[in-house]
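Budget justification aside, the reviewers requested a transparent look at the raw inputs and outputs of the sequence design task funded under Objective 1. We therefore reproduce one unedited record. The lines immediately below are the structure tokens for a 170-residue chain.
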């Protein structure tokens, strides 16, 4: 894994030293609403997976851990694409850092890894995330009913969004 540099963020491989900072971000109510039931042990277990199709990055801004972004690649030639998922500390939202991280990893997936299509799947009522993804070029393509269970135990709809390589807003 390599470091990726955006306009305002750096994406780098996670280390064990990042576990507590990421667990603290996941405990913030505005993040936990969409990423429920994470503690330091779950962060450690899921960050350091041996899944060859999954690639995690810590999002840093001005030397501070402000979030996490992961890439999952489907390499089957008939269905080749990649998906992105992320979370960002509440205090770092609304500053363009999320779109910068997404744009940075999307450009790497398209330019270096040769993907022609990327997907992302926020909760359908996560307006802030949907707006951030749209700034980068993602478009809604479908609603997935009762897709994700949130912290309250309720199933909520997901919004499937995708972007073709030429649609990336650089």
């Amino acid at each position: 894994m390599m470091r990726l540099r955006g306009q305002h963020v750096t994406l780098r491989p996670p280390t064990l030293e990042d576990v507590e900072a990421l667990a603290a971000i996941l405990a913030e109510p505005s993040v936990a609403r969409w990423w429920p039931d994470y503690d330091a042990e779950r962060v450690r277990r899921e960050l350091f997976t041996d899944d060859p199709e999954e690639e995690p990055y810590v999002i840093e801004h001005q030397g501070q851990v402000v979030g996490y972004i992961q890439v999952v690649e489907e390499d089957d030639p008939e269905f080749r694409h990649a998906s992105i998922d992320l979370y960002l500390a509440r205090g770092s939202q609304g500053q363009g850092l999320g779109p910068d991280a997404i744009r940075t990893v999307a450009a790497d997936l398209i330019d270096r890894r040769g993907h022609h299509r990327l997907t992302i799947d926020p909760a359908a009522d996560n307006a802030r995330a949907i707006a951030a993804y749209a700034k980068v070029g993602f478009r809604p393509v479908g609603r997935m009913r009762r897709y994700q269970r949130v912290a309250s135990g309720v199933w909520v709809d997901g919004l499937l969004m995708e972007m073709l390589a030429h649609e990336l807003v650089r």
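The chain has a mean pLDDT of 94. The beta strands are 4-5, 10-12, 54-61, 64-74, 81-88, 117-120, 139-149, 155-164. Computational costs for records of this kind are itemized in the attached budget.
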